[in-house]
Design goal:
By secondary structure, this protein is of the alpha/beta class. It is built from eleven helices and ten strands.
Length: 311
């Protein structure tokens, strides 16, 4: 008797507001994307999307909270590649979280960025690299958590630039980090490019480089790592929607379809381009393959640099 009811409930999904967990504090790149797509996604699903920021643990605390939610489509996770980074990072007694989720949509990709504050004296990434080479481990570079994708991307680019050494300073998210960088409390920061772009445009920060293979169309004057200190280097960040394991396929498909429609809205596209985000729209299986590839890439640098949670 229950089967017809379950089928009917899935056909009607959603019938109430949907909680979207952002596992970072407000103000960072993931939160920024969530706010941009929030209204459009809700409109195409026919319900409100309520963002809940749960920061801490390089995104792990909010991710764990999402993994414990009922697999009914009413709790979704907006994750970035830091999720893959934390699964690549050895944490005593902690199991990988990837098996606890069903990938729905890879929504966007974007470069990471290296930013500094105007009083640092650095105007180019070459000047920053020269200072790091001359003073190993003396430059303080903020990252949104040890083991975050930004931290591991920073380690990858430092290796590619000749095994440069800096001191990474962890924060609870991109928002708090950027506030400290604007204040001049750290020398530089590696964050999702979108997170620092607004402050750079306002003159509060200096964008030294992007990690994409080519310059971004919205920021053509910002050089790439590849054309400056590390030829051939490219590392993109990504963000996407996941659901707790066991969420029915028809519900995941409904969210995927709504996401694609939201990403085609002209106002959303324009806003994403301004922020340096590129709409992607990969489906769940493709998203899953990218996730696993990212884990392998990050696991390699974690092993080489002997990075562990709590470093």
């Amino acid at each position: 008797m229950a089967a017809p009811f379950v089928a009917h409930a899935r056909e009607d999904y959603p019938t109430r507001s949907i909680r979207l967990i952002v596992p970072w504090p407000p103000g960072g790149g993931v939160d920024t994307f969530g706010r941009v797509i929030q209204a459009g996604l809700g409109a195409h699903l026919g319900q409100n999307i309520i963002i809940e920021n749960i920061g801490g643990g390089s995104g792990r605390i909010g991710t764990q909270a999402a993994s414990r939610a009922a697999p009914d489509g009413y709790t979704l996770l907006l994750a970035n590649d830091t999720f893959a980074a934390t699964d690549a990072l050895p944490i005593a007694g902690a199991a990988p979280l990837r098996p606890a989720f069903e990938p729905i949509t890879l929504a966007i990709s974007a470069p990471q960025g290296v930013f500094t504050h105007p009083r640092s004296g650095f105007r180019t990434i070459e000047e920053f690299a020269a200072a790091a080479r001359a003073r190993p481990e003396k430059l303080n570079v903020g990252v949104p958590g040890i083991g975050s994708s930004q931290h591991l991307t920073s380690e990858l680019l430092l290796r590619a630039a000749g095994n440069l050494r800096v001191t990474h300073v962890p924060y609870r998210g991109g928002g708090p980090l950027l506030l400290d960088l604007v204040a001049g409390n750290v020398d530089a920061a590696t964050v999702t490019f979108a997170a620092g772009a607004q402050q750079a445009n306002a003159g509060q920060l200096v964008a030294l480089a992007v990690t994409s293979a080519g310059r971004h169309a919205s920021f053509p004057n910002v050089l790439t790592i590849a054309e400056t200190i590390a030829p051939g280097f490219a590392q993109a960040t990504w963000m996407g929607f996941l659901a707790p394991k066991g969420t029915p396929e028809e519900i995941r498909n409904r969210v995927h379809a709504a996401t694609l429609l939201a990403l085609k809205d002209s106002s959303v596209v324009a806003r994403l381009r301004d922020l340096g985000f590129d709409p992607a729209g990969l489906d769940g299986p493709a998203f899953g393959r990218l996730f696993d590839e990212t884990v392998r890439t990050f696991a390699d640098i974690v092993t080489e640099r002997q990075i562990a949670a709590g470093d």
